[in-house]
Amino acid sequence: MSGVAITINVDGDSPILRILKSLSDFEERKADLFDTVGSTVVSGIRSRWEGGEGLEGKWPLSVRVMREGGTTLRDTSRLMDSVTYNVLSDGVEIGTNVVYGAIHHFGGEIKHEARKRTLFFRQNQRTGQVGNRFVRKSRSNFAQESMGRAYSVNVPRRPWLGITEDEEQLILNSIEGVIFDE
Predict the structure, then answer these.
(1) Same domain membership, residue 90 and residue 125
(2) Could you tell me if residue 56 is inside a domain?
């Protein structure tokens, strides 16, 4: 190292001095910052979700919504309610533990294999004639096995996990608030 040094003389109210003072105790405050970032992102995801929109605007309506009404991806709200965040030592992670969250975010094809099914009917005891309506197993006195065919379902892409530009600005303001101790 050569004998060169930089000296900065600042008065007590200098912005540089305020930044340096606030950064000196950043380790103590970063968990609060990560908690704020996590809650901001999760809140944004849930508020968009309630309006039926994701990162790219309104979601295409699901078949269920077209048939029964409601909001896309909110039949039971299980996926939306599962979105949470974890504060880590060096950041925050946001996501869900619901397995089908990824297929709704990225879209894709779900393939169902052909399988054997048992169908339950009611048989008339006197005539022996089997009815043509399905019944519950508990009400059935006649069962028949049938081979169901293979099929696939195409799930459209509905990106929901991420942040918008407005949320990004809120996060930057939160970081600025922690650094400048506001």
Answers:
(1) no
(2) yes
Range of the domain at 141: 114-149
Q: Which residues contact 165 (CB under 8 A, 6 or more apart)?
A: none
Q: Give the long-range contacts of residues 8-16, CB within 8 A, separation 24 or more.
A: none
The answer to the question of residue 5 being in a domain is: no
Question: Look-up: residue for tokens 């379902």?
Answer: 153
Please state the pTM of the whole predicted model: 0.70
pLDDT tens string, the chain, 182 residues long: the values are 444 544 445 555 666 666 666 666 767 777 888 898 899 999 999 999 988 898 898 988 888 889 998 888 888 999 999 999 999 888 889 989 999 999 999 999 999 999 999 999 999 888 989 888 899 999 999 999 999 899 999 999 999 998 888 888 988 888 787 766 65
